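User: Fold both of these, please.

Assistant: Here is the first one.
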Amino acid sequence: MKRPTGKIWLRHTEYLCSLPTKHGGAGLVVLNGKGRILLVKPIYRNYWKLPGGSVDHFESPRDACVREAREELRLPVRKAEFLGVSYNTHVKHGHEDLQFYFYGGTVRKAQIDRMKARANEIEEYRFCTRRAAVKMLRRGSEGMLAMWFRAIAAGVPFYHERTYHD
């Protein structure tokens, strides 16, 4: 579309299609009555992670988080309070993503007893101490673990940036 000034103008949809794409993910921090954090061991990873996953098209990160907890573990999430966001660059794979984190609160024993891992996705799940979680999460994730707990305690969300070279 030409304007009288001689500049070329893009239609709004053309402009949107020209923008870079970032992948989105969402993770849920859930604790048990002893303050231990819930981790899952996906069948497709060699490390443990928070329940959660990719954000689908036209899905909010919060909705993705709630959906993934239900799909992965049959865990109904009544609340999902925003904890923070992490911007990640993956140099080797040439992409970047935004990971949103939410706090699902403390689950009762009855809820834990009803949890069941989705066999085609989750190998195992476990409530872990912070010390154990550091060893089980992806290498270098101890800083994220500390940020999750600080955000829960202070009620102040965090922002984090990280570059992965592997």
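And the second sequence with its predicted structure:
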Amino acid sequence: MAVYDAAGRSAIQEFTVNVSANCAASAAKPAVSARASGSSEIFSWNRVDGATGYTLKYWTSGNEADATTVDCHDIFGYSYPLPGGAGMSGLNFTVTPYNGAGEGVTSDAAAPAASALTLAVSPAVGALNLNWNALSGASYYIASYSAAGDQNTQTTGTLSGTSSVLSGLEENAGYSVYLTAFMPNGSLVRSNTAAATTATRTPPRFWRKRMP
């Protein structure tokens, strides 16, 4: 930009204003999607004008307060590893664009993609009952589980049919479980992650017989 006096002389040196760098990212809302890729799930989104980076937030259903936040910088995707096999993580996620002036508009929350393998868990004393739908063509299944707050995941041996029992667990303890189906062609299908708290054994009650 330049300003001149009446004689045509430059009164102020020319300078440039970079509007996009000094304003918050566009009001456009990113469009997000998720897809399975090998042993990972890929979260992706479109470019937003004016954005210099993107913040990804993901969480399991009902646990947004414990969401994980990742600065993806100027990348339009994020690869989430799926321990124990391929499929879909069942995670919800949002993407927020940003630049030096602040944050833009957060995307709508992407609902978790449904898996072809559905796992249901119910509590028992020091155990969990597992039930799932039969996945056509599956050779066998393996259950992976971990105690609440424990990063170490344990696995069962091979399972067949549509039910099993995880025994030998702590009583009154929370666990997360997911199932992996192993297909004849070498591919894997991962179920949703189910959570439950084991039951506690009720101590026997003794009654004193009243003497006549």
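Residues 51 and 108 are 17 Å apart (CA to CA).
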